[in-house]
C-alpha cells in the first residue's frame, strides 16, 4: 500500500482506510506492507502490517510525490530480490507518473483515484493541469482504477471512457460515546452545531460560518479543524465569524474519543465537503448518529440519500436548516438515527476489505490488466 502517510491512522481518510483494510487482509492470511511517512511507529509492524518508513520533501507541492517515488523504488527493488509484492495498491491519482517503475518490474497496480483534486482552490493553474494530466496517466498505466463513489466512477467513464472498480469506505458505528469527554469540553448533547473540516475553500467552512451567523440560532457553532498552507483562508473564516460569541473555534482535535463525542452530541453536523468522493468525516458523523446538513453535491447525496440528511447550497439555505433543527430537535434526532442505520447497512469495513481482497486476487491472476480499462483513446 503506497502513497499515503501510512499507519497508525492519524491524518485522513486514506490512512484510516489502510488501517481498516490492511488489518483485515492480515487476518485473512495475506502479507501486507504499508509505506509510511511522518511520525515513525516504534515497531516495524502494526496490527500485523509490515511498516516501511521513508522520508519526503516537506512542501505542499513535492511531499506526496517525493515519498511515493522512494516507495515505488523500494518496492521495485524488493521485486528484484524476489521479496517483492504480488500487487501494489497506489492511493491518489497524483502519484500516477511513478506507476511505470512498478510496471517495469511486472507488479500489477490498482490506483485509488480519490476525488477531483484539480478542483481544489489551493492549486494554481499549473497544479490543476498536473492533476488533470495525472488522472489520464492513472487510466493509461494502472491495471485497475478504484473509485470510492459512483460519482467518481461516472467522471472517469465520461471523461476517459474508463472502467473502474467501485469500493466505498466503511463507517465506524458508534453505539456509545464518551459523554464525560463532552462534558469536560463544556458541551451538552443536542446543545450545539458542529463543523469538522480542514480549512480549505472547497470544504465550505466559510459558508457554514457565514450562514450560521445570519441565522437566529441560539445554540453555539463549534468549529473543529485547521490546515497547513491555508493561513489566508483561515483568516477569511475568522473574519466572517467576527465577534459573534456563538461561534467557537477549537482548532484541531486529535483526541478521537472527544471528536466522536462531539459528532454524537451535535444537534446538527454541517458538512461542506464538495470535491471528494465518499467522505470519511461524513461517514463518521453518520455512524455517530449525527443529524447531517450537507453541501448539495452528488457525492453527499449519494452517501446520505434523501431521508438521512438535509442539504444547503448557500448561506441562506444553511441558516434556514440550522433554525429548522433548533425548532424541531426531535426530527433532527430522527434523521441522525436514519443516518446511522444507513451507514451500518451500506458502509461496512468487513465488506470493503473483502472487496479489496477480491481485487488483489484478480490483479495477481491477471484478470484485471490495462486492457480491461476500456478507453476511448
TrEMBL record:
The keyword Chaperone does not apply. The keyword Transferase applies. Keywords: Glycosyltransferase, Transferase. Residues 191-342 form the Glycosyl transferase family domain. This is DUF1972 domain-containing protein. InterPro entries: Glyco_trans_1, Glyco_trans_4-like_N. Residues 12-163 form the Glycosyltransferase subfamily 4-like N-terminal domain. Pfam families: Glyco_trans_4_4, Glycos_transf_1. It comes from Actinomadura rugatobispora. It comes from the Bacteria. PANTHER family: BLL3647 PROTEIN, GLYCOSYLTRANSFERASE.
Amino acid at each position: 500500500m503506497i502513497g499515503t502517510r501510512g499507519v497508525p491512522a492519524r491524518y485522513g481518510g486514506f490512512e484510516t482506510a489502510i488501517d481498516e483494510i490492511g488489518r483485515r487482509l492480515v487476518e485473512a492470511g495475506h502479507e501486507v506492507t504499508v509505506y509510511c511517512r511522518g511520525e515513525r511507529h516504534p515497531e516495524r509492524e502494526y496490527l500485523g502490517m509490515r511498516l516501511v518508513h521513508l522520508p519526503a520533501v516537506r512542501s505542499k507541492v513535492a511531499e506526496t510525490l517525493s515519498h511515493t517515488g522512494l516507495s515505488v523504488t523500494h518496492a521495485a527493488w524488493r521485486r528484484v530480490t524476489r521479496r517483492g509484492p504480488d500487487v501494489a495498491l497506489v492511493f491518489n491519482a497524483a502519484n500516477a507518473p511513478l506507476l511505470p517503475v512498478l510496471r517495469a518490474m511486472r507488479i500489477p497496480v490498482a490506483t485509488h483515484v480519490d476525488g477531483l483534486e484539480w478542483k481544489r482552490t489551493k492549486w494554481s493553474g499549473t497544479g490543476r493541469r498536473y492533476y488533470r494530466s495525472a488522472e489520464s496517466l492513472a487510466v493509461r498505466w494502472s491495471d485497475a482504477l478504484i473509485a470510492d463513489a459512483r460519482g467518481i466512477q461516472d467522471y472517469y467513464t465520461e471523461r476517459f471512457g474508463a472502467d473502474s472498480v467501485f469500493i466505498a469506505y466503511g463507517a465506524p458505528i458508534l453505539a456509545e460515546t464518551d459523554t464525560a469527554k463532552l462534558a469536560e469540553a463544556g458541551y451538552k448533547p443536542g446543545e450545539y452545531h458542529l463543523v469538522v473540516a480542514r480549512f480549505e475553500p472547497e470544504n465550505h467552512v466559510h459558508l457554514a460560518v457565514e450562514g450560521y451567523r445570519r441565522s437566529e440560532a441560539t445554540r453555539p457553532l463549534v468549529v473543529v479543524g485547521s490546515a497547513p498552507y491555508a493561513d489566508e483562508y483561515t483568516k477569511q473564516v475568522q473574519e466572517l465569524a467576527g465577534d459573534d460569541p456563538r461561534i467557537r473555534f477549537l482548532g484541531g482535535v486529535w483526541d478521537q474519543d472527544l471528536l466522536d463525542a462531539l459528532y454524537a452530541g451535535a444537534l446538527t453536523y454541517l458538512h461542506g465537503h464538495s470535491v471528494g468522493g465518499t467522505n470519511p468525516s461524513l461517514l463518521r458523523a453518520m455512524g455517530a448518529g449525527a443529524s447531517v446538513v450537507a453541501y448539495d453535491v452528488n457525492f453527499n447525496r449519494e452517501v446520505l440519500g434523501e431521508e438521512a440528511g438535509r442539504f444547503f447550497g448557500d448561506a441562506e439555505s444553511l441558516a434556514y436548516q440550522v433554525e429548522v433543527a433548533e425548532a424541531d430537535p426531535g426530527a433532527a434526532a430522527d434523521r441522525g438515527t436514519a443516518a446511522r442505520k444507513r451507514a451500518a447497512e451500506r458502509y461496512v469495513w468487513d465488506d470493503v476489505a473483502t472487496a479489496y481482497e477480491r481485487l488483489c486476487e484478480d490483479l495477481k491472476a491477471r484478470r484485471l490488466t490495462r486492457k480491461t480499462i476500456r478507453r476511448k483513446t
